[in-house]
Amino acid sequence: MQKAGKAGKQRLGLSLGLVGVLAVGIVPSMGSAQGNVAYGLKAGKPYNGTKLKFLICCLGAGQFAQLSKLTGEGGEFQQLTGISVQWENTPYEALQQKELVEATTGSTYDVVSWVDAWGEAIKPYLVPLNSRIQADKVNLKDYPSAYIQAATDSSGNIIGMPFRGHPLVMFYRKDVFDALKLPVPRTWQAVVKTAQTIQQKKPGMVGLSTMYGVNAGQNLFNWVSMLWGNGGDILDKGNHPIFNNAKGLQATQFYIDILRKDKVTPAAATTYGEPESSTQILQGKAAMWVGWWWYWSKFADPKQVSADVLNNVGFAPAPGWAGGTTQNYGLVWPVGIFKNSKNQDAAWEFIKYVSNTDVQKKVAANRSDPALADNTIVTFSGMNDPKVNAANGGIPKVGGQALKTARTLPQVRSWAEIQSVLEVGINQMATGADVKSTLDRMARDVDAIQKRAGYYK
Fold it and tell me: Cross-referenced Pfam families, in alphabetical order (predicted)?
């Protein structure tokens, strides 16, 4: 998260205050669908026959595919509650705009999930969940604080529960590191030095694959970890841009130098997003890559990696900043209820189910179908669960370590415009533009956006 201003601190403080009065989490009382049901759901099927509409995308993701089956017609959730859920599966590229249109025009959907940075635009149209969370004794302490803040509005209302989330982790070639007797780097500075060593001793292999292309803000993910780790930030307490100050300049210059000066990443990284940068390590061309933990299933799939990569990829928490901190972006998809829904109580039952740690553990530990396998889980107890880790090579526990200090992107309604300025500017610097003058221009553009959005005069 960016450093919280007064409103941000109040928002986080209220969230933590609510956490303090909550008891233990939802504990399943495994019984029949007619009696006491599992996962803290209401007994007696009071919403039997309700059909919910869920605005979401990406049913190709293993977690979503499994949960859609569990909550659809004939699934476990319907057996327990009598409620069935229709998952929309909107294309990801169209989801943000559709959510905004649905929110502002009176949605026919009951439930919606969104990427954290999109939230401020639709939070006013969602139902506060504080009283429901307290009544059902949901343990918010089991979720990363970054996830809870991203699902909290400016008045301190929690308007969504964490549903799908990702820490950044560093993937690396274990066989290469073992052969060269290299320690796993813990800071970005050590990453660069390690990459240089690898390129000197393993000609033809790139030390680090990164991404500087313009693609849904993906070139910001590693940059913000450097910025935050160095003590910088995107916005200050008053929501003014400060990424061009001395700390920001130092972190940004370092990020650009990886490509232009140190040359430890492919020259083509100026066009890379996640797919292209991850492919470098999947195909055995790169020794390190920092990305979302859900990529682990790809690295473990013989159909998606080259023979020399299979069973030779290790992982560690994403690197921090030498002399600073480790504060990486923890991305989360909260799930909430539209105020316009006529089925709010049934919708809350659905949210309790899909965010419940025992349901999430069942999904994350299920590797019966490799095409649906997904290590994604949003609670610390789930990330530390032995069965979940055994099914996923231990990466959930490592992800949990990374999420202890993770932050979320600025929760401002103008984020979409700000993101565009930032990702285009990063790409311009990567392709040759002067870092300081470009950062200053970007800051002026963001300042104009913030004034237009009404954050200050």
Answer: SBP_bac_1
